């Protein structure tokens, strides 16, 4: 494979990152997908659109959030100098809102009257319900029944924000089934509905569009690290389910060869424990086609999609954004994984050392830092994307620790 | 691809229907639903019950364009151990008893992708498959399977929908062969039904763009509705209603009750009666 001049030019016109991506959707949806693509292309060229996003991110979301030197964790691990990109300080407590602001402004430009979305852990559902309240648009969130049971606080948040939460009872009743159900809604309500996808996956142009909206993470890190240290970071670490916080952090640095990037998938009970024990699509899956794109998937020999497992409801999706699949194949980003146990340990370490309760998703990235930082020199600048806060997770963590709340 | 003369079973069947002056009945069942043996009994009985063309669903874990009836059918089939290979075995068995009734596999791309496109096409042809309907392969992705299928001599039947406007229609029809499947509603299978006037107008619109036969499906549940469609289209497709009839014949454990296949075929006979009586 020849090395491209830039890693940042993708996707091509048909939505391909190498062999990944594409537009694998039913004909009923195809005209809508093309409409979204056209509208997004026009919006990107309109300074007023960009200005609207910037204004909302500043005044409503609270950006820029800090690039925080995690001094105690750095001392404890005794190696690399660790910075946290504090996405958990955003309004609604995660990076998901960055994308929701961008997409709802696009939906308004397109004249859409109704918003639908899928959610797993509920973070994207909450962020979507939030922007729908802000812009006074009806909002329907599809959420698997299994996830509803384990993420009650977020379900209530969405309802408080005025959203309708529809329990999904098909399949395994988790995120992939919620996405199936959202697609079924969209195909039925094509004329007035906008599907606000929560991660950098799905049919083109969603993977590229969500990446663009999340790239504010990496753009800020670039500026902030220059101010703090006068140079680029040496490595970036982020968790990957669908992969939107990771691609948002990585993308602005892809063409800086000195910056190493590590993405952490959910190894659940362990990748060696079989295909149902983890949710690591890249580390433990193979390429296939689902939800509009070709990408790495958890699937059996016959191409049936398998249910991933992770302690984190936000990572147990059986696929991953197509750009990640490509970045993996060409070797620009290293894909590793962290088990449930490693994650729980890192979760507690972060809480006690830095006074920050991280989301279980982000704790996967922390687990990798715990392994990696001690082996690196003290002048190695490492950035972790602290993609969300862990308040939503305290009940499931308590359960795993054997504590009754 | 300007279609060379199509001598396949699908083209022959539509030519025969035209000669008879009637529309056809296309029936859908999911391969391996509720189990391979019962499915085989239904499949083999379909032509005698009046099915003119057979769509056999290739089960998939995530059928995102399907409503609850066909979702449940897919899951039953998968729980019964149905695979792409076993689906092709069903077709092979059917073909040994019926040389003329076209069989079209309908499903989603990933099981075919996992099987390997070239190997799948070779095995499908050897089994006696005549056409493919792959819901999540729009013309934008023709290089994946559509073009290889056409080259291998398998019809690739495309769905046209209410959202497919005149500007887009030529792209949708370009590599379509066998027939065009008009999805009469914007929605999933087995839910709402379209009104007759809208279906008639849609078929007329398609006919202005293509000489291929037009089959209409989604939301046809009764012999009367099938007859209505048969008056304006070349064929009526019934899927969810047949699959629901089959599901109604399962016991509490999901096993087929005695006489289930005969009951399903009885329903197909009623549908065929509706279609055949439509234009007299």
From TrEMBL, chain A:
GO terms assigned for molecular function: tryptophan synthase activity
Family annotation (Gene3D superfamilies): 3.40.50.1100
Coiled coil: none
Pathways involved: Amino-acid biosynthesis; L-tryptophan biosynthesis; L-tryptophan from chorismate: step 5/5
Enzyme Commission code: 4.2.1.20
Catalysed reactions, as listed in the record: (1S,2R)-1-C-(indol-3-yl)glycerol 3-phosphate + L-serine = D-glyceraldehyde 3-phosphate + L-tryptophan + H2O
Domain Tryptophan synthase beta chain-like PALP stretches: 62-388
Cofactors, names only: pyridoxal 5'-phosphate
EC primary class: lyase
UniProt keyword list: Amino-acid biosynthesis, Aromatic amino acid biosynthesis, Lyase, Pyridoxal phosphate, Tryptophan biosynthesis
Residues where N6-(pyridoxal phosphate)lysine is found: 96
CDD domains to which the protein is assigned, alphabetical: Trp-synth_B
Residues annotated as transmembrane: none
Subunit structure: Tetramer of two alpha and two beta chains.
Family, per entry: Belongs to the TrpB family.
Record function comment: The beta subunit is responsible for the synthesis of L-tryptophan from indole and L-serine.
UniProt name for this protein: Tryptophan synthase beta chain
Automatic annotation (TrEMBL), chain B:
Location of the active site: 55 (proton acceptor), 66 (proton acceptor)
A single GO molecular function term of this UniProt record: tryptophan synthase activity
Alphabetic keyword roster: Amino-acid biosynthesis, Aromatic amino acid biosynthesis, Lyase, Tryptophan biosynthesis
Enzyme kind, highest EC tier: lyase
Domain of life: Bacteria
E.C. designation(s): 4.2.1.20
Pathway where it operates: Amino-acid biosynthesis; L-tryptophan biosynthesis; L-tryptophan from chorismate: step 5/5
Coiled coil residues, start to end: none
Pfam family for this entry, one: Trp_syntA
Catalytic activity reported: (1S,2R)-1-C-(indol-3-yl)glycerol 3-phosphate + L-serine = D-glyceraldehyde 3-phosphate + L-tryptophan + H2O
InterPro entries to which the protein is assigned, alphabetical: Aldolase_TIM, RibuloseP-bd_barrel, Trp_synthase_alpha_AS, Trp_synthase_suA
Family, per entry: Belongs to the TrpA family.
Task performed by this protein: The alpha subunit is responsible for the aldol cleavage of indoleglycerol phosphate to indole and glyceraldehyde 3-phosphate.
Self-association and partners: Tetramer of two alpha and two beta chains.
NCBIfam families per UniProt: trpA
Protein name per the record: Tryptophan synthase alpha chain
């Amino acid at each position: 494979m020849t090395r491209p001049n830039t890693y940042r030019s993708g996707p091509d016109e048909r939505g391909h990152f190498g062999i990944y991506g594409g537009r694998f959707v039913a004909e009923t949806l195809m005209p809508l997908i093309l409409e979204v693509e056209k509208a997004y292309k026009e919006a990107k060229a309109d300074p007023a659109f960009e200005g609207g996003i910037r204004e909302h991110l500043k005044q409503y979301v609270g950006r820029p959030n800090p690039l925080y030197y995690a001094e105690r964790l750095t001392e404890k691990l005794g190696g690399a100098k660790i910075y946290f990109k504090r996405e958990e300080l955003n309004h609604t407590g995660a990076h998901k809102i960055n994308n929701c602001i961008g997409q709802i402004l696009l939906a308004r430009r397109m004249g859409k009257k109704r918003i639908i979305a899928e959610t797993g852990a509920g973070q994207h559902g909450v962020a979507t319900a939030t922007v729908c309240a802000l812009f006074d648009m009806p909002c329907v969130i599809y959420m698997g029944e299994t996830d509803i049971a384990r993420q009650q606080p977020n379900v209530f948040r969405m309802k408080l924000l005025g959203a309708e939460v529809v329990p999904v009872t098909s399949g395994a009743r988790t995120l992939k089934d919620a996405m199936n159900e959202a697609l079924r809604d969209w195909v039925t309500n094509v004329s007035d509905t906008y599907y606000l996808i929560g991660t950098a996956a799905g049919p083109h142009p969603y993977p590229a569009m969500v990446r663009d909206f999340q790239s504010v993470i990496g753009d800020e890190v670039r500026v902030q690290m220059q101010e703090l240290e006068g140079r680029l970071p040496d490595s970036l670490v982020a968790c990957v389910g669908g992969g939107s916080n990771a691609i948002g952090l990585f993308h602005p640095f892809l063409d800086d060869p000195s910056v190493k990037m590590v993405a952490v998938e959910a190894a659940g009970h362990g990748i060696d424990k079989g295909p149902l024990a983890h949710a690591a699509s890249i580390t433990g899956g193979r390429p296939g086609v689902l939800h509009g794109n070709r990408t790495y998937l958890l699937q059996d020999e016959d191409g049936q999609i398998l249910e991933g497992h992770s302690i984190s409801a936000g990572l147990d999706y059986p696929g991953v954004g197509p750009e990640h699949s490509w970045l993996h194949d060409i070797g620009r980003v290293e894909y590793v994984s962290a088990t449930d146990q490693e994650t729980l340990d890192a979760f507690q370490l972060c809480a006690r050392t830095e006074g920050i309760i991280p989301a279980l998703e982000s704790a996967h990235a922390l687990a990798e830092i715990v392994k990696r930082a001690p082996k690196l020199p003290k002048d190695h600048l490492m950035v972790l994307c602290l993609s969300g806060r862990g308040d939503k997770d305290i009940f499931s963590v308590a359960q795993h620790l054997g504590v009754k709340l | 691809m300007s279609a060379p003369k199509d001598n396949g079973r699908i083209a022959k069947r539509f030519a025969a229907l035209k000669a008879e002056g009637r529309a056809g009945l296309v029936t859908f069942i999911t391969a391996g639903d509720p189990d391979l043996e019962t499915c085989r009994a239904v499949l083999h009985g379909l032509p005698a019950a009046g099915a003119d063309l057979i769509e056999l669903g290739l089960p998939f874990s995530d059928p995102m364009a399907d409503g609850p009836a066909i979702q449940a059918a897919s899951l039953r089939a998968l729980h019964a151990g149905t695979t792409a290979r076993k689906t092709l075995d069903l077709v092979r068995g059917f073909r040994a008893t019926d040389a003329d009734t076209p069989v079209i596999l309908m499903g989603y791309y990933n099981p075919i992708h996992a099987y390997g496109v070239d190997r799948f096409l070779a095995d499908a042809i050897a089994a006696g498959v005549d056409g493919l309907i792959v819901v999540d392969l729009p013309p934008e992705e023709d290089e994946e399977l559509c073009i290889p299928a056409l080259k291998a001599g398998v019809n690739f039947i495309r769905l046209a929908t209410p959202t497919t406007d005149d500007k887009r229609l030529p792209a949708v029809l370009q590599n379509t062969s066998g027939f065009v499947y008009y999805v009469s509603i914007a929605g999933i299978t087995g839910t709402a039904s379209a009104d007759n006037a809208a279906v008639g107008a849609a078929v007329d619109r398609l006919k202005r763009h293509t000489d291929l036969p037009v089959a209409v499906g989604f939301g046809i549940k009764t012999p009367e509705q099938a007859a209505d469609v048969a008056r304006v289209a070349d064929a009526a497709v019934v899927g969810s209603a047949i699959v629901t009839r089959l599901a109604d014949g399962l016991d509490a454990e999901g096993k087929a009750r005695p006489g289930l296949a005969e009951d399903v075929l009885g329903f197909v006979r009623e549908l065929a009666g509706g279609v055949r009586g439509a234009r007299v």
